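Project channel, design review

CF: Before we commit to the Sulfobacillus acidophilus constructs, I'd like one complete example in the thread so the newer folks can see what an input/output pair looks like. Taking DUF3501 domain-containing protein.
RD: sounds good, go ahead.
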Amino acid sequence: MKPLVLKDIDSIEAYEAKRQAMRQQIIALKRIRRVRLGPRVSVVFENRDTMRFQIQEMCRIEHIVEESLVQQEIDVYNDLLPEGLAIGATLLIELVQEDDMPAILRELSGLEEAVWLSFGEHHVHAEAEAGRSTEEKTSSVHYLTFRFTPTLRHALIDAPEVRLSSRHPHYRHDTVLSRETVASLVHDLTSE
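CF: and here is what came back for DUF3501 domain-containing protein:
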């Protein structure tokens, strides 16, 4: 996926003029790209559009206007956009107030290492950003990368069913991705 550059980011004034329209587009896009994985986890498959929106919002909220500071934001978010044949995702462990948060995060330590996509006889294991889990607990947010080969990309395109799975000892869940979600991911893998 092509990284974002400074010219991709609008000034705060220009962004403000089109923010509502862009926000509606991103809400619709994330509706397609957000997948429930059991009762506690959501995975959002990210792309240039979702990352650009995050940068625009960050600059707006924090009043970042200096080009060097905008570039710093771009650099941070570009790290979450994998290069080549890969799909980036954000894994969110969803906790409600009454949950025993420390116990749940302790129980789910290592969850990010137990997630993959499967289609036919193929499996693409998620690579997790290092440093977000310890033996004592995990973070509630993880950044994942699913790396494909050309063969795996073609298998995904032709797959009648694609599953997102977790095989963590305390969190074993599967979900079938909608055709719309798969088409969006295929678009990521086949576009410049």
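RD: helpful, thanks. The chain has six helices and eight strands.
CF: Residues 6-190 form one domain.
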